[in-house]
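Sample 3 of the quickstart, ligand pyridoxal-5'-phosphate:
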Amino acid sequence: MGTKFEIPFGGRGGGYTQQEIKLISEVASMQGPLTQGPNLKELEKYFVDFQSLGGYAFGTSSCTSAIEIIAELLHAFPGDEVIIPTHTYTSSAYPFVKRGFRPIWADSDPLTRVTTPELLEPLINNRTKAIVIPHLYGYVANISGVCEIAAEHGVPVIEDAAQSIGARINGNRCGSLADFGVFSFHSHKNMTTLGEGGMLWVKDEAIAKLVPLLRHNGHCPFDFKQENYWEPAMGNVDLPILNETPLAPGNYCLGEVQSALGRKLLERIDEVNLTKRTRALSFINALEESDLLEFHREETERHNYHLLAAKVTGNKRNAFIKRMAEIHRIQCVVQYLPLHRYDYYRKLGFAEAITPNAEDFFDNMVSFPFHHSLTDKDFEYVLDCTLESVKCLS
Ligand SMILES: Cc1ncc(COP(=O)(O)O)c(C=O)c1O
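Result:
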C-alpha cells in the first residue's frame, strides 16, 4: 500500500495541441455568453456530419446527462424493464433505475466482453422497454443483430458509445446505428472536452424536438406574441405531457469553450484511435506466446482500444497486478464490477443475474494503463514489465 506509481492508471486520456490550447483561450476570452452559443451549434452540426448517418446531435455536460435525457423520454410505468449488460459502468444503468425501471442484467461474450443478440434475446418480454448496448472497452457490439431482434419486439435500442467514439462497424460509425447513441468526453476518454462533456444522438425527429427542453430546464418561448419582451418573463417554462406524465427537465448543457474544443478534437479522433489500436495490437502481438494473458484482438476500426484489458488465466490475476504494482510501479486495475454486485443495486433488490461469462471475466481481468498521453517510453516500459511479469508467473 502507499505505492507511488511510475505509471498510474488514470489521469488524462490525451493532451492538447498548441492550436487547441490557443482555441480554448480564444473562446474563453471572447465577449458574450459562455453557454448556449454558436460553438455548441457548430459542434452539433459537425458531429452529425462526422457520424454521417443523419439524425440529430445534442452536446451534453456528460454522457450520463445524455442517458438521463433518454431515460426521461422513455418513461417507466410500473413493471417496465430495461435490459443492460451487468459488465459496464454504472451510468449505463442508474438513470433508468432511479426512474423506476427494473434492470434485467445481460451477460457478455467471453471473448469480446460485450453482449450479443443471442445473449439478449431470451431476456426480452412484453415488459421490456429498452435495451442498452455499451460498446465496452471501445469495441462495437453486434448492433445490427441487436436492432433486428429489438425491432421484432418494438423495443428501442440505446448505443452506449461512451468509450467507442469514432469506431466503425461495416464502415459506419457506432452511436448512430440504433435509436439513441451516447458519447463521453470525460477526462479518461480518447477525446476529452476539458474533463467532462458528452453527446446525445437521436434518430427520430419528433423525439429530437423534445431534447432541448429536457436539456435546459424546460425553457421555451411563450405560445403567444409578447407585447414586451420582459413580460410575463423573458421566456416560458413548459414541457409536454408524454405517457400521461409531464416530462421532467434538468440542466445538462455543454459550455461554449468545451463545445469549440470538442469540434476541434473530432478532426483528429481517427488519428488518436489509430495510434491506440496500433499500440494495442503491438502489445497483444508481443504477448502472443503467453498463456497467462488472454486479450481480445481486433485489427479493424471496430475497436478504438479506449482500454486495453486481458483475462489472466490460472487464478493468477492478483499475483500479476501485485507484481506490476510492487516490483514495477505500474498501476493496473480491475474494471466494471458486475453492476448487480454493487451495494446500490443490491439494496434496490437487483442482485439477481445469470451472467457467468461477465463474472468470470471480471474476477480474472486486468486493465493496463493505456491513455493516449502515455509516451512511447512509458508504453515500452509497461510492455517490458508485462513480459517480465508473465515470464515470472508462468
Ligand atoms: C460505458 C460507459 N457509459 C457511460 C459513462 C458515463 O460517462 P460520463 O462520465 O461522461 O458521464 C461511462 C464513463 O466512463 C462509461 O464508461
